[in-house]
Amino acid sequence: MERTALRRRLSWQVATVTDVRRETATARTLVLDVPEWPGHLAGQHLDVRLTAPDGYRASRSYSIASAWAGDTIELTVEQVPDGEVSTYLVDVVKVGDQFEVRGPVGGWFVWKPEQEEPVQLIGGGSGVAPLMSMLRAHAAADSTAPVRLLYSVRRPTSVIYVGDLKELAAADHVDVRLVYTREAPAGEPRIGRIDADVIERFAFTPAESPTTYVCGPTPFVETVADLLVAVGHDPARVRTERFG
């Protein structure tokens, strides 16, 4: 059975788009039906491959945003300027369309329901996607492990999963805090990046021994990871996923 699951992860499978949801002006979520999907852990990603009529192929990796739910998975894609795959997935693909996927991939940047320690999630932009998978898996498992999310976005209209985050923030054991870098909503005086002050005020302390997951563009991830280590967090408990 393990060999069969491994073959499925390494083989391209046809995914059918069953729903699309606009998240922001430049991002949307695709709900995919993948028969015999082998299952995934919160935080894993998959490869997407598109094939043009002339045979040209392009593939990209995207984090899975959903908790495990049968044969259906969700991808949230942020459009990259001049990105041939992201532009197609955000602006062109529609319900009923098909393309190939392969996965799931990754075993380090994952959260499992049996983890009982505090969970610190720190995301920048579309780096919130795998963190949302963790939040959804946490909710689905009725986990009592305390979770905090620091989410860095440019402005209120850039927030991905705004409705979901409000709902999750109302649950016990979950704290959600948005950090605006360009424009803040009324009543939010702070505009700036996640810095040492934000880490000290809103993140779990080293003494609480959290497992921390940081995802976003490479400069963001490197900066946040350095800040965490500088205040005393164990580097071995800081897990990172970067893109760009």
TrEMBL record:
<dbReference type="Pfam" id="PF00175">
    <property type="entry name" value="NAD_binding_1"/>
</dbReference>
<dbReference type="InterPro" id="IPR017938">
    <property type="entry name" value="Riboflavin_synthase-like_b-brl"/>
</dbReference>
<dbReference type="InterPro" id="IPR039261">
    <property type="entry name" value="FNR_nucleotide-bd"/>
</dbReference>
<keyword id="KW-0411">Iron-sulfur</keyword>
<dbReference type="GO" id="GO:0051537">
    <property type="term" value="F:2 iron, 2 sulfur cluster binding"/>
</dbReference>
<dbReference type="InterPro" id="IPR050415">
    <property type="entry name" value="MRET"/>
</dbReference>
<dbReference type="InterPro" id="IPR017927">
    <property type="entry name" value="FAD-bd_FR_type"/>
</dbReference>
<protein>
    <submittedName>
        <fullName>Ferredoxin-NADP reductase</fullName>
    </submittedName>
</protein>
<keyword id="KW-0001">2Fe-2S</keyword>
<dbReference type="InterPro" id="IPR008333">
    <property type="entry name" value="Cbr1-like_FAD-bd_dom"/>
</dbReference>
<dbReference type="Pfam" id="PF00970">
    <property type="entry name" value="FAD_binding_6"/>
</dbReference>
<feature type="domain" description="FAD-binding FR-type">
    <location>
        <begin position="10"/>
        <end position="111"/>
    </location>
</feature>
<keyword id="KW-0408">Iron</keyword>
<keyword id="KW-0479">Metal-binding</keyword>
<dbReference type="InterPro" id="IPR001433">
    <property type="entry name" value="OxRdtase_FAD/NAD-bd"/>
</dbReference>
<dbReference type="GO" id="GO:0016491">
    <property type="term" value="F:oxidoreductase activity"/>
</dbReference>
